[in-house]
Amino acid sequence: MENGNNHFTNGVHDPSDTKGKVITCRAAVVYGPEEPFVLEDVQVQPPQKMEVRIKILFTSICHTDLSAWKGESVAQRAYPRILGHEASGIVESVGEGVTDVREGDKVVPIFNGECGECDCCKCPKTNICTNFGVNPMKTVMAGDGTSRFTNKEGKPIYHFLNTSTFSQFTVLDSACVVKIDSDDSHLKKMTLLSCGVSTGVGAAWNTANVQSGSKVAIFGLGSVGLAVAEGARARGASKIIGVDINPSKFSKGRTMGVTDFINPTELEKPLHEKIREMSKGGVDYSFEWVGNVDVLREAFLSTHEGWGFTVVLGIHPSPKMFPIHPMEFFAGRGITGSIFGGFKGKTQLPHFAKECMRGVVELDKFITHELPFDKINEAFQLLMDGQSLRCLLHL
């Protein structure tokens, strides 16, 4: 790699080495649905106005990356492309107008940005950002509509989810970069705050506001579902019911606070009836991240009449609509979706990071594997085989 590999030591960097220059580095590029990642040299342009170029130190793989790699929606089929959206790293240089981060800062990228200027960013009721919110259709930078990545022939390589972290260097809009006051020992764990852990814990804390003594049901015990469990445990939930068709997940779930486990394939009655029976009338909160509308209906009906609340976390690619009659809302149950756990990234994530560093949320439990960056195809296979929660790649 040119211009940069030897200039970051324990967070110390001389920006004069690379600032304003094109950096050649290694990236994992995908050229089509389900094709193996190709590790190749790419050129990374300097950041333009209100952009930040960062050196990625660690990145991990989320189910959203897996979905994009498979090309499960038309919006994700833009090639060649650099995927990845969970990472931690160091600011290499900043473009004109960037004032909240500077060279050498430790940062995490966020796919759901916060510009601080739009009506949504100014509203305390939402973490949506009109200008830099999550957008799977976006493949180029907002400033000039071009990519900051090119291959050796000078042809563009497309961006992904405002981040593109499967590269030793990447360029992001400054709205999607969060400064984290972390020492070196914690930085790799901060990678998990870019998506999965923040999404799950935040859904419990911010979106649902789980209270001490509450009863919770979680539909799907992957990394996000287990992060919900960890968040509910930290809030003092008295009963956390985990629902999954894979019973091997219960042992890991128990370490995250899951108290009861249900395998729907073993039931002789509707799932929501079983949960209502176990929770004496229904849970206070249910969380669905399977991405299946039939499961979502079970989650909705498993909550207690009068106050039960369901949070939708799963991505639902099917055109099938939510099967509910309007009169069912008259039982007093509520439902909402949650993006990035309700966290406003730039203003609220730094505090959440401090909570994690002091052990309120135990991030280590989510890292099941660590591999060098050139083993990225193996890391994806681990996720597909259900063997990993988060595989951390060292760049």
UniProtKB/TrEMBL annotation:
Residues 224-342 form the Alcohol dehydrogenase-like C-terminal domain. Residues 49-145 form the Alcohol dehydrogenase-like N-terminal domain. Its EC number is 1.1.1.1. PROSITE patterns: ADH_ZINC. One of its GO terms (cellular component) is cytosol. Belongs to the zinc-containing alcohol dehydrogenase family. Class-III subfamily. Homodimer. This is alcohol dehydrogenase. It comes from Morus notabilis.
